């Protein structure tokens, strides 16, 4: 059974940093691309970032480019999102997601985690 | 920037068929695969269609996806509606190497 378990969310002040983690199990992690997708309270889904199986291809939404960094450790079956210079508009539930394929921008998301909540507020 | 536009809401009666559209703002929607995700209230999304018209295992064949190049749109059709189908539905495709989601459609089954 595929499991994606996010952690690291919480309340953080504007301008500060936070690092999200996603522990993956139930599949061969280094065979697949991974994504972070967020959902602000009462709003729709917003793609944040994606990373290919070998970290060779990475993409970011314009809204987070230059502030967020996605990475993965295939030896630890883990995905990460380093979030710097956080803003109030980054407040959202952040989902870790597994792609159908090994590179970003080909097929799409297969499995979703349950999300970790990030609240940016003073 | 490439955008996907969905109707804000649709409603239909149990047992009927409903179609949700997803229109691309530019280029050809057929150039990249379209996916559809279902999100019930208080739950994480799940995938109901991938690669335009493929169903993940466990998704009933009441769900189908299609592409219409002439209108540059994708569609999700749900037949034999059940109350459990009431949810938000999101289409998703790609703009270069970035994923793009539609704004979501709230389906009410009444």
What labels describe this entry?
heterodimer; A: 122 residues; four-stranded antiparallel sheet; 0% helix; B: 110 residues; six-stranded mixed sheet
Describe the overall structure.
The complex is a heterodimer of chains A (122) and B (110). Chain A is mainly β and 122 residues long. Helix content of chain A is 0%, strand content 50%. Chain A is built from no helices and eleven strands. Chain A has strands at 3-7, 10-12, 18-25, 34-39, 45-51, 58-60, 68-73, 78-83, 92-99, 109-112, 116-120. In chain A, the strands form two sheets. In chain A, strands 2, 4, 5, 6, 9, 10 and 11 form a seven-stranded mixed beta sheet that branches. In chain A, a hairpin with a 4-residue loop joins strand 7 (68-73) and strand 8 (78-83). Chain A is globular. The model of chain A has no long low-confidence stretch (mean pLDDT 97). Chain B has 110 residues and is mainly beta. Helices cover 0% and strands 47% of the residues of chain B. In chain B, strands 2, 4, 5, 8, 9 and 10 form a six-stranded mixed beta sheet that branches. A four-stranded antiparallel beta sheet of chain B has the order 1-3-7-6, with no helix packed on it. Chain B is globular and about 35 Å long. The relative contact order of chain B is 0.33.
């Amino acid at each position: 059974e595929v499991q994606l378990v996010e952690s690291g969310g919480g309340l953080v002040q504007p301008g500060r940093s936070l690092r999200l983690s996603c522990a993956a199990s139930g599949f061969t992690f280094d065979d697949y691309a991974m994504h972070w997708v967020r959902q602000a309270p009462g709003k729709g889904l917003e793609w944040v970032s994606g990373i290919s199986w070998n970290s060779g291809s990475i993409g970011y939404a314009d809204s987070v480019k230059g502030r967020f960094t996605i990475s993965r450790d295939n030896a630890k079956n883990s995905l990460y999102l380093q979030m710097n210079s956080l803003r109030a508009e980054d407040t959202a539930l952040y989902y870790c997601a597994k792609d159908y394929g090994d590179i970003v921008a080909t097929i799409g998301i297969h499995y979703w985690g349950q999300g970790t909540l990030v609240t940016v507020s003073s | 920037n490439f955008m996907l536009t969905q109707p804000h809401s649709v409603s239909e009666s149990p047992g009927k068929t409903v179609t949700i559209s997803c229109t691309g703002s530019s280029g050809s929607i057929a150039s990249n695969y379209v996916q559809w995700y279902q999100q019930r209230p208080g739950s994480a999304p799940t995938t109901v269609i991938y690669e335009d018209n493929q169903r993940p295992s466990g998704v009933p064949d009441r769900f189908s996806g299609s592409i219409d190049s002439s209108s540059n749109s994708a569609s999700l059709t749900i037949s034999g509606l059940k109350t459990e189908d009431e949810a938000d539905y999101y289409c998703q495709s790609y703009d270069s190497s970035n994923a793009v989601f539609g704004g979501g459609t709230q389906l009410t089954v009444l």
